[in-house]
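Margin note: ligand = coenzyme A.
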Amino acid sequence: MSVVEVWWGRVGDARPELAEDLNAVERGRLAAYARDGDKARFLVGCAIVRRVLGVQLLMPPASVRLDRSCPDCGRPHGKVRAPGVELSVSHSGELVGVAFHPGVAVGLDVEVVDPGIDTDALGSVSLADVEVEELGRYDGTGRARAFTTYWARKEAVVKATGDGIRADLRKVVVSPPDQDARLVEWAGYDGTVRLVDLEVGSRHAAALAALTETELTVHSIDAGPLLAH
Ligand SMILES: CC(C)(COP(=O)(O)OP(=O)(O)OC[C@H]1O[C@@H](n2cnc3c(N)ncnc32)[C@H](O)[C@@H]1OP(=O)(O)O)[C@@H](O)C(=O)NCCC(=O)NCCS
Ligand SMILES: [Zn+2]
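Resulting structure:
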């Protein structure tokens, strides 16, 4: 059994003091966000990563060394990495989540369920034919939710491998939204993926993937107290 910790913060947890622990690169990224919501989500994500690892490594959050370099261009917008731990950050709407595991690569994705989402347009670039057909069984808000479930499951998988949206999401085929989350097939990928949906309320959908054969247990932890002082 493999235990993944997922720490959840909220946009409302953002406060200026949290930025004191950020390094120069993170401060630059924080300053570059135009919208307050994006700033808050990024800040809370950085703070969860630094504070959780600070406790684990017995060091101040500001001293935790993180590598955010993108394997394609070298700029600091890649999957965040730290020695001795695997992690994955995701933010959307009210929620910011960070998944941690000591040795297995993880991918977390949380998405707001937007009732006005254009599921036809987005589905044409992200869903396999069998998934488009399945989505056709849903209407209205149910369809938005079903699509977002598909999307979060697929993104969790491609975030675990580090491919991100460079991967063709139409080839990352996952189980139907009303069934337990599972990677059905991904042509060209021959590794093992464990996938689970996470319960995050009706306004968001979230999924976690881990590159392991072992069954996953997820501990969801409220990051509020960690961020409050
Ligand atoms: C990663 C990605 C899937 C994020 O999707 P999203 O739903 O918009 O955003 P999320 O909030 O869920 O995830 C953002 C986090 O993903 C992480 N991330 C970035 N690239 C990643 C990758 N290739 N794999 C896994 N995680 C990645 C970062 O830690 C980021 O958190 P940060 O804001 O603290 O930096 C998407 O932005 C992506 O694929 N980006 C890379 C695309 C690419 O290859 N770009 C090349 C640029 S040169
Ligand atoms: Zn890049």
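Helices lie at 24-32, 36-57, 119-126, 129-135, 140-161, 224-228.
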